[in-house]
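Hey, quick one: can you model this chain's 3D structure?
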Amino acid sequence: MRIYGYFSAILTVSAVLSFAGCSEKENGGGGGYDGPSVQTSAKIHLVSRLSDETLFSSDADVDAVSEYVNTELNSDRTTVAFLDRTDVSGVADAEQILLDVRKWSSFIPLGQSGQEDFDVTTFVFNEPAELVTAYDITSDSYVSGRTVTLSGTLTNYNDKGEVTNVNDNITSTVPLSYCRIDSQEQITALASETLAEMFNASQTFVVIGTVKNELLAELQSAVSSSNSRCAVTEVKAGTDYTIFMLYTTRYWGYNGVTETSVASGITAYSVDIAWK
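Sure thing. Here's the predicted structure for all 276 residues.
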């Protein structure tokens, strides 16, 4: 198993510096005597078709995604976003979005379907980036990401479930990665080798990814069997793929997801995560 400093020149791009923001809790949380005494919340955005198609099919798609990213990452609520399946064919469009919204980014390889045909997700963030780290899953698929600082909210409740204090200026640092799972072979390799290497590097990682709908249960079972300190949670099922969150349960939790229609067939998923 190899760890790459990063992929190649075509898979590295930065836009200009922007200001990092903080996140607000949107979903309420707690409630009643059974509610939590403390609730934490930070958002990770994923823009995707949840199908085996590239994200951009027209200039209108590019404009709509650009407007969404600009709104969210300049709203003082969101720190990072993944643009799923921008691919090599959409590199120029992704670069233009990054210039328009004035953000930093890295391109994350999902796999290779030809000698020069890479499936790629664009990772957008609010602060300058170090190089992305990529771990092999199989010879042509990877789990890739970087450490980011998430801005979020901490809400305190009393024993009646009433809010007693809200601090919306909380930050938490997380090694955040992305991947796509298309086969049982990838699940086996991820659970048997890649997961152990990632866990040895950091026990605080989070992976947001997509998996073919019919393989979700196998992924959940393989990960829990391989490492009981990790879990895979279903976030949202789409036409062909399901968004999942793979995380170390000692440090992270899953609060829920909200959806926003961006363009025809393109949806933005705001994944709400908690830290402990």
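One thing worth noting: Helices lie at 59-73, 91-101, 184-201, 216-226.
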